[in-house]
Write a structure and sequence with these properties.
The complex is a heterodimer of chains A (117) and B (113). Chain A is mainly β and 117 residues long. Chain A has no helices and eleven strands. Chain A has strands at residues 5-7, 10-13, 19-24, 31-37, 44-50, 53-56, 65-68, 75-79, 88-95, 107-108, 112-116.
Chain lengths: 117, 113
Amino acid sequence: GAGVSQSPRYKVAKRGQDVALRCDPISGHVSLFWYQQALGQGPEFLTYFQNEAQLDKSGLPSDRFFAERPEGSVSTLKIQRTQQEDSAVYLCASTASGTALASYEQYFGPGTRLTVT
Amino acid sequence: AQSVAQPEDQVNVAEGNPLTVKCTYSVSGNPYLFWYVQYPNRGLQFLLKYITGDNLVKGSYGFEAEFNKSQTSFHLKKPSALVSDSALYFCAVEGIRGGKLIFGQGTELSVKP
């Protein structure tokens, strides 16, 4: 069906506000990844889910960042008390692989551009 | 730690000429290498990957990449560039723990008519 979708596409938050970013992966895709892409940089890994299990959260920059995927499909990335350095594009990707092997290409959503003022 | 480097921030090519976008890698073990392309306001699109086998990998839109173990390189190539190839290109390697991708800084390709 459709590709990976993300919402909202653009989000402006005042410093200190909480935000929630949504990712709808390709139907049936087992693995889901979140990446952060700062302006002029390559994407950087944040966290990874296999179904509903969060298997790797080593890239989350602080405890203000929290991700969940409670039913193994849609995922939400939440950022509490946003700071200016959180301004970036947040990309979600999914893959059919259940073993998290990168030999299966990741399909990326269009991203959510977060601007913290 | 796994890493990739893209030494050129920007590559300029005339339409119809061959193009090369460079990537070098540093990994422990056998590398899984990828190229992705990013158009403005759109997500990354997969171009090609090297897992094992032939050093020359063919991908989408006429792109190919050559894996060179001795030079630890994985350069992206296309024999004849199109204006529509103008975009941001990212080289990536699989992380040690599997699955996640570690990206280079990106190279902006500009193809002029």
